[in-house]
Amino acid sequence: MQHAPIFKAIRDIREFLELDTQKRHAYLYEPHRWFIRESPLLFSRTVLLVLGLLRNSLSIELFDFFGRLKIDSVTKSALCQRRQLIKPAFFRDLFVVTADVFYKRFKAKRWKGFRLIAIDGTGFRLPEDNDIGESYGWHGNQHNRVPSTRALIAFDVLNKIIYDVEHHPREVSEVKVNYAWIPDFPKDFLAVYDRGFASYAIPLLHLRYGSNCIVRLRTDVSPVVKQFIQSTDKERHINVSPKHKCRRTVAQQGVRIDHDEFVKVRLLKILLPTGEVEILMTTLCDKRKYPHRFFAGLYNARWGVETAIFCIKSYGKLTAFSSYKPEGIEQDIWAQYAMYNIQSMMITSQEDEVKKVSQKRKYPATINRNVTLGLIKRNLTYVFLDPMRKWKARLLVLLDKMTHHLEAKRPRPSRPRNRKILRGQGRHIYESNYKPTL
Question: pTM, whole model, 2 decimals?
C-alpha cells in the first residue's frame, strides 16, 4: 500500500505525543502538578502549537488553532505560562523520533549501501537578552555584542532528512565539534564535507570508527595537493597523517591520535564546467567498486544541506521566535527541525504521484516546500488530534493537496558566488519569488 509507511510514521509520532507516567517525569518540570485536569491547553495541544511554528501574533495563532478545534480560544499569556511547564528536551526528543521513524517506516534511498550525509554549519542571531546570551553565547565586535549560536547539521541528502544537529557557541569551530561527532556516526554513513572542514584527521577518524567520508580540499595549501594538480593523474592514493596542531585540536574533543598514526586515502581530480579544478579526498579507495565518475555527482549532492538550511531559515522563519526565554527558544528551534522531517516524510510518500506528473513535463516536478509547510501547519490538529478513522482520511486529503503545489526542478546553474551584505538592522528583507505561508 502506497501510504502504509506514512500512516505508520504518523501513528508513531502520535504515540510519542501521548503523556504517560514515564514521559511526565522526563519532560515536565512538576509532573505531579501540571497537565492533570481538563483544560483547553492540554499537553498535546500545547506541543502542537509550538510544533506549528508560531510566526504570527500569538493571539491570531491561538484564534486559528482553536477555531479548527471549534472551541473557545485562550489568551497568549496562558500559552506562554503553559509551555514553560514543558522541558525543551521533549522537543529535542521529538525531533530525534521523527528521524528514527523515517528510517524505521520508509525504505530509505542509499548509494551503494551508504546513507549520503552532508555535514555543514550555519549561524543565526537570537533575541537580545542577557539570559539568552549566557545560555547560547555571544557574537560581536569592538562596538557591540548580541546573543548568537551556530548549528552543525548532519543531513541525509538523498532522503531530505535532518539526521542530527549540534548547537555550539560561535567561538567554537564547527570542525572541532565534528571531531567529537565522528565516533558516534553509524557505519553506513558516507559523510560529505566542503572545504571548510578540510583536515587529514577527518578520514583517519572515520576509518577508525567504521564510517567513510568525502572531503573537498583546498588547492592552495598542501604541497601534496599542489603536486597532484600539476600532474596528469586523475586520481592518486596517498598516506596521510595529521600534524601536531591538528592532533592537539582533536585531543581537546576527547579523541586521541598517535603521532605515528596514518591512513591511506584517495585523491580525485574533478574538472568543473567553469574550468576550475576540484580536489576530493575520500576513504573509498576501491577503484572498481567506486569509480572516479561517481564522485563529482556525490559531492554536488552536498548542496542539499544548503537548500535545507535555506528552507529552515526562510520558509520556516527560524529566527522569528515565539518566546524570549532560553527554554522557549530551544523549544522553537527543535520544533523547526521536527517539522522539517515531518514535511519530508509526507513529500516522500507522494513521490510516485509526482513522478507521474513529471513524465508530462520538460523538467522534473517537485513539491513546493514553502506552500506545503503552510498546508501542514493548518492541518496539524486534524492529523495529530483526530480519532483513528478521521486522521487517516484527513492525512490523505492533505497529501493530495500537496501534490497540487508543484514546481519545476531545473538544473542548478553554475555561476560565480556573489557575497551579499549582511543587513542585520533591516526589519523587512525582500526575497524574489518568495512569500511567507506561515
Answer: 0.94
